[in-house]
Design goal:
It contains 19 helices and two strands. By secondary structure, it is mainly alpha-helical. The chain starts with about 25 loop residues before the first helix and ends with a helix. One of its GO terms (biological process) is enterobacterial common antigen biosynthetic process.
């Protein structure tokens, strides 16, 4: 051993710089992939050695060996490539479908509320459907966001926080300001309105969840989800009544369970679909819960039970989506899900402007027209995103953006501030219920 060089203990070189190794619960998500990659490399080496020893000749020009019998070699190689993945992660389209479906339901819900405020009525079917699905829209989007927490935590803490500041807090501040001239400048000096009085509250909540995820990255997210249930249940016992529709951000505690449950269940969902033994009962419970919400025109609010039932319902829907074939008719919904932050942020200003400045009579036809116009504007906004990206994330430096673009080409699930795939952030912007036509500004500003 040369002088001045210190031996590496255990034959390993020391790690230089800070460690960005993901927490153990996040590493389990990638362990199977590494194992399959090793198996594939071993199979390829064995196949190459076998074929080179039996059917190869020396190349006089280069001294290397060239296969003389391609037919002999392609058999094992083809079998190996078919049995093992190529090492590139495959996109999980059910996640896009979950986000896209939830976004479409959010748009329909907001349109129904705004139409009731400004036109005095909305189709009865949409009212009942909106009430029935009210308990599940927001939790589904948060669950989808939590699924990508482990991947985000693989970044160094500095990059992690910088990304959330750019992709969550910037659009939260910008689009809240966009709504001020629509809803009234009087809200500008109300701190709680900025935090929780507008549909952009979801971005602020997601930022809080991601920061909590970073601080508790060595703790399994299942424990964090359980802690949120305990905290929500303890509020009334401490003399604080629950408030999900007011300006107080109580909902941040209520909805945290769905985000961290998504992070906790991610490894299991990556390995296999939700079993039918869980999916079928979960959907049955969800149907009963939805009927209750539609009948009483209110979401059931039972401590612990509400969160457990809604989470079970979301898992049941995931089980169905995982088994759906990739139908051509559903591709547009997947596309919206991949870009979900754009329709999430764009749709409500469009709906508010339509409701305030159009004089069409209320009815199913008007509802369908407004819905089609809103979706059309959202699609156009997605297509314009390459030149309007600053509306959805704070512009990065050119070098960082170039490196992120190169990395993004190799990553199957892209990053979008709403659910990290268009979603490091994003989702349900719901006007508060119990609104009255006499107070349109305050009503349209509060979101569930």
């Amino acid at each position: 051993m040369s002088e001045g060089r210190r031996p590496c203990l255990g034959g390993r070189r020391p790690r230089l710089g800070g460690s960005s190794r993901p927490p153990r619960w996040a590493q389990s998500l990638h362990a199977p992939r590494r194992g399959r990659a090793r198996s594939r490399r071993g199979a390829l080496v064995a196949s190459s050695a076998m074929t080179s020893s039996t059917s190869s000749t020396a190349s006089p020009a280069t001294g290397t060996r060239a296969l003389s019998s391609p037919a002999t070699a392609t058999g094992p190689a083809r079998a190996t490539s078919a049995a093992a993945p190529t090492g590139e992660p495959t996109r999980e389209h059910w996640m896009d479908l979950l986000r896209g479906t939830a976004i479409l339901l959010v748009i329909a819900h907001h349109l129904r509320l705004v139409q009731q405020i400004w036109d005095g009525g909305t189709p009865w079917t949409m009212v009942e459907l909106s009430e029935a699905l009210a308990p599940f829209r927001m939790p589904a989007l948060l669950f989808a966001s939590g699924l990508l927490l482990a991947r985000s935590l693989r970044r160094p803490p500095g990059r992690f926080l910088a990304g959330k500041l750019r992709g969550l807090l910037w659009p939260w501040l910008l689009w809240s300001a966009v709504m001020l001239p629509i809803l009234g400048w009087g809200h500008a000096d109300e701190p709680l309105w900025w935090l929780n009085g507008m549909y952009t509250w979801f971005l602020a909540a997601l930022f809080c969840y991601y920061v909590i995820g970073l601080v508790t990255r060595r703790i399994h997210p299942g424990w964090v989800a359980l802690a949120s249930v305990v905290a929500w249940t303890a509020l009334p016992l401490l003399g604080t009544a629950h408030d999900l529709v007011g300006p107080r951000p109580d909902k941040f505690v209520f909805y945290a369970v769905f985000f961290f449950a998504g992070a906790a269940l991610r490894p299991m969902l990556a390995r296999r679909p939700v079993p039918w033994a869980v999916t079928v009962p979960a959907l049955a419970v969800a149907a009963a819960w939805a009927l209750h919400a539609a009948r009483f025109d209110a979401e059931p609010q039972v401590p612990v039970l509400t969160q457990v039932v809604v989470l079970l319902a979301v898992v049941g829907v995931v089980g169905v989506l995982q088994r759906l074939p990739r139908l051509r008719a559903l591709r547009p919904v997947e596309w919206l899900g991949r870009n979900s932050i754009v329709p999430y942020l764009v749709h409500l200003p469009v709906i508010e402007l339509l409701g305030r400045h159009s004089d069409l009579p209320a009815g199913p036809g008007t509802f369908a027209l407004y819905y089609a116009v809103t979706i059309g504007v959202c699609v156009l906004a997605v297509l314009l995103r390459p030149v309007t990206g600053f509306l959805y994330a704070f512009p990065a430096r050119k070098a960082a953006a170039a490196s992120a673009g190169a990395a993004g080409a190799a990553v199957a699930q892209p990053v979008d501030p709403v659910v990290d795939s268009a979603v490091d952030a994003a989702a349900d912007a719901m006007p508060a219920r119990g609104t009255t036509p006499g107070r349109p500004d305050a009503d349209a500003g509060a979101r569930r």
